[in-house]
Amino acid sequence: MDCYTLVFGSIFTLSFLYIIAKLSSKSSEKLPPGPTPWPIIGNLHLLGAKSHASLANLAKRYGPITSLKLGQTTAVVISSSSIAKQVVQKQDLAFSSRFILDALQAQNHYQFSVAWLPVCPQCTLFSKDMDDPFSDSKVDELKDAVSGIVDVAGKINLVDYFPILEKIDPQRIRYRANIHLGKLFKLFGDLINERLEEKKRNHSEKNDILEVFLNHSAENPEEINQNHLESMLLDLFIGGIDTTTGTLEWAMAEILGQPEIVKKAQAELAEVVGKGKPIEEADVSRLRYLQFIMKETLRTHPPAPFLIPRRVDQDVELYDYVIPKGSIILVNAWAIGRDSSFWQEDSLLFKPERFRSLELDVQGKDFALIPFGAGRRICPGFPLALKLVPVMLGSMLNSFNWKLDADIEPKDLNMEEKFGAIVTKAHPLRAIPSPL
Ligand code: HEM
């Protein structure tokens, strides 16, 4: 190599590196504030075992739009209701894609699922009446496999933050997801085939969600095929089981921790429905105090504290910042529900009465309370959940008296959370019913 080539080559390389460095520092100058990343891992070490709480603490220091580096991925955390409104409503389109976890790429589930597809025509199906859950004997098997997939999807997976590790799958998360999803798709495939045969044999129609899906698929075969059907059933189970049962468990735990709330709820049930009588869905709208309990439970324990993580497909301007393409967006509904500037200084207390004077609902219009998200990606199962959980809770309270197991004092009940795709009680509630 002659001297000229060496000199010009070096000048060219140095200039190129200088421009790249300038460009990247410019874009990072426009990033929202956040902690300084460490080499390679970035800020992964700051997530902690309860990431929703760790990120809420970071927001106290860096503000309601915080940026972090999770391995190679930029994450932006939204922790105030006004900015959540900007993101999930006003600039909804820019923030509507999903960050697809590596675990859910197993079995190509994400290609057909409502939850992971871009906003899609199939989503509207979920807003149809879905009041009849399956009453099939396979439900227990389904529940186990669903819990398995919720569990692996809730683990912090290095592959999500270091895509270079994709082929290695160091924590075997995709491997395990593959097994659970495989079982689920087999079960759903059988369920669909059995139903199709039954329909052919008896020329009959059942009044449930599978029938709605099958009819829609028959009318729009190009929009919904068997893969879509199986993935939609999976969405229904993943989205619907642990969220609703978890909410019921938190509600029971919170109110058994404050027996005066149980008394008020039982008094309302006795007056509106009649002591010991079964609760119908139609009763729910007249059970105001029960609805306050439901809202307060979802405020303090949103099952999906970051909603379902979203992603930006392009650089997006948000206020004075630029969120770089590919960033994961975490809307911290848990932190927003505890924000004392809105919820007052007793924001950490469980107090259903606060809703007597607060006309807020949970359906994506009031951004201080967004357990179901908002905008075009709002949970399509919320109408079902808002009937199902109060009916279950009301039935438990209107049929039995309850006491904590092992004579635990209500004030001593352990309310620790366990973080995952769905935040559950770290110590399952143990309560004993007795006749009313
Ligand atoms: C207490 C009960 C529930 C809670 C708190 C809840 C919460 C959520 C949240 C936070 C999201 C993401 C919204 C966003 O990104 O803005 C979501 C999405 C979703 N939920 Fe629910 N959910 C519940 C029950 C259900 C039920 C019963 C079903 C179905 C039967 C369901 C099906 C879905 C589906 C399919 C999505 C994905 C929607 C999309 O990405 O377009 N959920 N849910």
Structure description:
- Heme binds at residue 379.
- One of its GO terms (molecular function) is heme binding.
- One of its GO terms (cellular component) is membrane.
- Its main location: membrane.
- This is Geraniol 8-hydroxylase.
- By secondary structure, this protein is of the alpha+beta class.
- It has one domain (101-314, 340-435): Cytochrome p450, CATH 1.10.630.
- The protein contains 14 helices and eleven strands.
- The strands form four sheets. It has a five-stranded mixed sheet. The chain has a two-stranded antiparallel ribbon with strand order 5-6. A two-stranded antiparallel sheet has the order 8-11.
- Strand 1 and strand 2 form a beta hairpin.
- Helix 5 runs antiparallel to helix 7 (173-202), helix 7 (173-202) packs across helix 9 and helix 9 packs across helix 11 (288-300).
- The radius of gyration is 24 Å and the shape is globular.
- The protein starts with a helix and ends with a strand.
- The relative contact order is 0.14.
- Mean pLDDT is 87; it is low at 6-26 and 121-135.
- The site of protoporphyrin IX containing FE has 28 residues, from helix 4, helix 9 and helix 14.
How is the secondary structure organized here?
Layout: H1 3-29, H2 51-62, E1 65-70, E2 73-78, H3 81-90, E3 97-98, H4 123-126, H5 139-153, H6 158-161, H7 173-202, H8 209-219, H9 226-256, H10 259-272, H11 288-300, E4 310-311, E5 316-318, E6 321-323, E7 328-331, H12 333-336, H13 340-343, H14 382-399, E8 400-404, E9 417-418, E10 424-425, E11 431-435
Parallel strand pairs: 2-7
Antiparallel strand pairs: 1-2, 3-4, 4-7, 5-6, 8-11, 9-10
Bound molecules: protoporphyrin IX containing FE.
